[in-house]
Amino acid sequence: MFTGLVEEIGTINNIHQNGQTLVIAIKANKILSDIQLGDSIAVNGVCLTVTNFSKNHFEVDVMPETFNDTTLRFLKVGSKVNLERALAANGRFGGHFVTGHTDGIGLIRKRSYFENAILIEIEIPEEFNHLVIEKGSIAIDGTSLTIFKSSQNTITISLIPHTAKASILGSKREGEKVNLEFDMMAKYFYSFMQNKSQTTKSKGIAIEFLKENGF
């Protein structure tokens, strides 16, 4: 479990690709202070497992499903990435609940400024429109953000100067892709309502059937 509060920006040191699998070495500093093999690290919002590390870098494996469903396949040596360690049981919780399981990929359509805010308009896959709510939460490249505005297939988020400086979103440009993880509570609520609706329909059919047959 993560919070969506980026701890530091890392740099890709090396990438070894074999088909649709990757071994990525990432240069970091802060998150290496207590790192252990098997730890979970969110890299641009994708939960990955530490397979090797030294005093100035760590390595992770990317499997085919993650390769195809996230932006990690677009990384190059020198690319900057958002990094966050899994939430400690005794840690202070900020941001919102982020699992590190990316739902899809978004495309930055427009970047503009309003006083001290950076407004970023992102195109999202149509199948996730039902999970969008204005003032609701979303994780973009692992950064916990609030949906400022929404329309069909697009959302707009607003970056304060601190977030722009502390995450790679501050330097992302129009045409670049980002990882999207929609709010866990929205997904659970939608799933609950879908199941409830199906159950209600099933009960309705059963009651109607019984009445028609004299029960």
TrEMBL record:
EC main group: transferase
Pathway annotation: Cofactor biosynthesis; riboflavin biosynthesis; riboflavin from 2-hydroxy-3-oxobutyl phosphate and 5-amino-6-(D-ribitylamino)uracil: step 2/2
Lumazine-binding repeats: 1-96, 97-193
Residue ranges constituting the Lumazine-binding domain according to the UniProt record: 1-96, 97-193
Enzyme Commission number(s) from the entry: 2.5.1.9
Reactions mediated catalytically: 2 6,7-dimethyl-8-(1-D-ribityl)lumazine + H(+) = 5-amino-6-(D-ribitylamino)uracil + riboflavin
Pfam name, any one: Lum_binding
InterPro entries: ATP_synth_asu-like_sf (IPR023366), Lumazine-bd (IPR001783), Lumazine-bd_dom (IPR026017), Riboflavin_synthase-like_b-brl (IPR017938)
GO molecular function, one term: riboflavin synthase activity
Keywords: Repeat, Riboflavin biosynthesis, Transferase
Job description of the protein: Catalyzes the dismutation of two molecules of 6,7-dimethyl-8-ribityllumazine, resulting in the formation of riboflavin and 5-amino-6-(D-ribitylamino)uracil.
PANTHER family in the record: RIBOFLAVIN SYNTHASE (PTHR21098:SF12), RIBOFLAVIN SYNTHASE ALPHA CHAIN (PTHR21098)
Protein name: Riboflavin synthase
Species assigned in the record: Pallidibacillus pasinlerensis
Phylogenetic placement of the source organism: Bacteria, Bacillati, Bacillota, Bacilli, Bacillales
